[in-house]
C-alpha cells in the first residue's frame, strides 16, 4: 500500500472546528489561512478549548473579505479582516506579540456566545512569531498554532490507539475519530507510530522537518461534536505512549520551502520519508 496524504485540515480560528480541504497552500508558517484568528481575554492572553470547551462547537469559514463563524442557535457572524494598523498586544504561551483587533461587534458576539468577555484578533503578519528555539531553527516562524506550523498524524497510529481504547472499554467505547487530535495532514499506508522516527518528509512537492512529538492535552478528551469530556484518549495513551510525564500522538512539522516560496499539497499526494532515525525511541523530544 503506497504512503499517501489521506486528508488535509485547516483551522481558521484557533480551537474552533476545522475544515477538510482537497488542497492547501503550504507557507513557511503553516497552511495558508490556518490559525490566523484567535480569541483572547481582556488582558490579551490566548483562550483555547482547554478552558472554553464551547469553542469546539464554533464553525469558522474563511471568506473573500475575512471570517464567517456559526454557533449553535445563533445567526452567523461576518467579520472583515481588520486593519493591520490596529495592533494590540497578545500573549500565546511564551510568545508575546501583536495582532490586529477585529472590533467591538465581533467581540460582543463571541462574548455573548461563550458567556465571558473575549476579544477577536487576527495575525496579519506571521513573521512576528518564532517557533521555540529548543526545537526549531532561528528563522522558523509559526502562526497561532500552539507551537509549530503543522501537525502530522497517521491513520495506522490512530487504529492502533483505538485497539487499546476498545480493549480497555471491553468494546463499550466507540472508536475515536481523527478530529480529536486536530492534525493538519493525515497520512495513510504506514505502520503504527513510524512517524516517531521521521526527521525529514516530503508530501507532494513540499518538504518538511519533523521537529517534535506532540504532547496531548485535555482537548483530545472532549467530544468534538458535543464538547463533553471523558477519559479517552489520554487514559489509553498513558498505557502505550507515556514518556517524560506526557502522552504523545502526532508529530510537529516545519516546512523547508525552497526560497520560502509557497507550495500546494493535495489529498492523494505521495508521501516520502527522506530521513529517519532507528525505530524504538518513542516520539521526538528533542531532536538535537
UniProtKB/TrEMBL annotation:
Protein's recorded name: MOSC domain protein
Xref: InterPro entries: MoCF_Sase_C, MOCOS_middle, Pyrv_Knase-like_insert_dom_sf
Superkingdom as given in the UniProt entry: Bacteria
Gene Ontology molecular-function annotations: catalytic activity; molybdenum ion binding; pyridoxal phosphate binding
Positions of the MOSC domain: 125-274
Amino acid at each position: 500500500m503506497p504512503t499517501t496524504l489521506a486528508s488535509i485540515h485547516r483551522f481558521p480560528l484557533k480551537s474552533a472546528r476545522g475544515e477538510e480541504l482537497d488542497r492547501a497552500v503550504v507557507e513557511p508558517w503553516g497552511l495558508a489561512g490556518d490559525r490566523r484568528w484567535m480569541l483572547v481575554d481582556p488582558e490579551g492572553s490566548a483562550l483555547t478549548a482547554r478552558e472554553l470547551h464551547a469553542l469546539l462547537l464554533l464553525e469558522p469559514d474563511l471568506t473573500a473579505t475575512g471570517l464567517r463563524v456559526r454557533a449553535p442557535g445563533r445567526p452567523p457572524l461576518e467579520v472583515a479582516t481588520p486593519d493591520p494598523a490596529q495592533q494590540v498586544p497578545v500573549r500565546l504561551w511564551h510568545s508575546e506579540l501583536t495582532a490586529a483587533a477585529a472590533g467591538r461587534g465581533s467581540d460582543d458576539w463571541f462574548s455573548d456566545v461563550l458567556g465571558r468577555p473575549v476579544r477577536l484578533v487576527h495575525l496579519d503578519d506571521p513573521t512576528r512569531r518564532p517557533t521555540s528555539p529548543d526545537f526549531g531553527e532561528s528563522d522558523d516562524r509559526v502562526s497561532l498554532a500552539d507551537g509549530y506550523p503543522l501537525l502530522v498524524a497517521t491513520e495506522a497510529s490512530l487504529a492502533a490507539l483505538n485497539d487499546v481504547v476498545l480493549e480497555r472499554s471491553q468494546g463499550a467505547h466507540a472508536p475515536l475519530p481523527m478530529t480529536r487530535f486536530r492534525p493538519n495532514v493525515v497520512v495513510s499506508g504506514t505502520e503504527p507510530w513510524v512517524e516517531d522516527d521521521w526527521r525529514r518528509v516530503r508530501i507532494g512537492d513540499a518538504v518538511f522537518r519533523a521537529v517534535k512529538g506532540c504532547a496531548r492535552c485535555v482537548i483530545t478528551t472532549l467530544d468534538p461534536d458535543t464538547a463533553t469530556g471523558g477519559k479517552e484518549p489520554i487514559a489509553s495513551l498513558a498505557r502505550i505512549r507515556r514518556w517524560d510525564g506526557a502522552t504523545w500522538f502526532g508529530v510537529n512539522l516545519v516546512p523547508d520551502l525552497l526560497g520560502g516560496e509557497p507550495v500546494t499539497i493535495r489529498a492523494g499526494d505521495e508521501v516520502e520519508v527522506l530521513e529517519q532515525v532507528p525505530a524504538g525511541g518513542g516520539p521526538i523530544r528533542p531532536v538535537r
